[in-house]
Amino acid sequence: MRLIKVGRQCYAGRMEHPKLHVRLLLGLARNSFLGRGGMRRKILAYIERNTDGPFRVDIQGAPFMIHFDNETERKSIFNNYNIREVAFLKQACQAPGSVFVDIGANSGYFTQILSLAMPADSKVLALEPNPQMTERLRGNLSLVSETTRKKTANITIVESAVGAENGEAQLMLPSGANSFGRAYIGETEEGVTVKISTLMDILANTGASHISALKIDIEGHEDKALKPFLDNAPRAMLPRAIVIEHTSNDEWDDDILLLLKNVGYQETGRTRGNALLTLPN
Q1: How many CA atoms lie within 13 A of 191 on its CB side?
Q2: Which residue in 48, 4, 44, 226 sits closest to 137, CA to CA?
Q3: Cα 76 vs. chain centroid, distance in angstroms?
Q4: Which of 70, 96, 102, 205 is the most exposed place for a label (fewest CB within 10 A)?
Q5: Residue 110: its pLDDT value, please?
Q6: Who wins on pLDDT, 7 or 232?
């Protein structure tokens, strides 16, 4: 497992701000009904046509470089992406020494926003096996030290997939429009060879003794990542709050939502893409 501490690094891409008329349109959409539904798709298409290369924008108080090949980044520019999920996770990470685990960190949407909202002595583990995406993640995290004065929680990027055992896995990298952030673990010899580790070992190697909150979105591999942890971790180590993508449940071998409920988790909310669960004390 390769652990990379995020420090002060330069982002290699273009640091272009949107053109003035694009900024005005985006600001209008962020503060009105235009940032939702069909109008949002039309505005996004217009912004994409009128913007050269990735551009920098602040989202929920955190700076990001936005690329149009990643659906998560595209949706996030309107400042209303997964806002219920973010608020839910923030609430679980308010105590000193909190630990947030982001499984499938992508370009750092949850990692970066949570790190700015947590106490400075807290810890964020960003788990992402895609080497291209971890470069983008590091670039986004470097913007915080360059553009803000707020001290973030300690962030560690773990370049590993999460599964039932340690070893190697094949990461499939889909092609096509907006598919950059949709890599998934496959069963063939194609794709990119990446490390795969158990969540228990990742926590041990990063010095985390508990999890305050966990977000997991790994394209149908959620059950393989969480079931071994539920089977072996002491209750004190289990996350107090979980956000889990439920739209890939037809790819699960085990109904991980049912397994979580059997352990004692209660589903307290559900959005179009995610289930929100808490574990009572």
Answers
A1: 21
A2: 4
A3: 12
A4: 96
A5: 97
A6: 232
Residue 6 has pLDDT above 60, yes or no: no
- In the chain, the DSSP E strands lie at 2-5, 55-59, 62-66, 99-103, 123-127, 154-159, 161-162, 167-172, 184-186, 192-197, 213-216, 241-245, 266-270, 274-278
What's phi and psi for 25, nearest 5 deg?
Answer: -65, -40
With contact defined as beta carbons under 8 Å apart, do 101 and 233 qualify? Answer: no
pTM of the predicted model over 0.85: yes
> Would you identify the CATH topology of the domain 2-8+80-278?
Rossmann fold (3.40.50)
Q: Enumerate the CATH 3.40.50.150 domain ranges in the chain, comma separated.
A: 2-8+80-278
Distance CA 157, CA 152 (A): 14
Give the rounded distance of the alpha carbon of 101 from its chain centre: 9
Tens-digit pLDDT profile for residues 177-234: 555 666 667 766 677 888 999 999 999 999 999 999 999 999 888 999 999 999 999 9
Give the whole-angstrom CA distance, residue 140 versus residue 64.
5
pLDDT at site 229 = 96
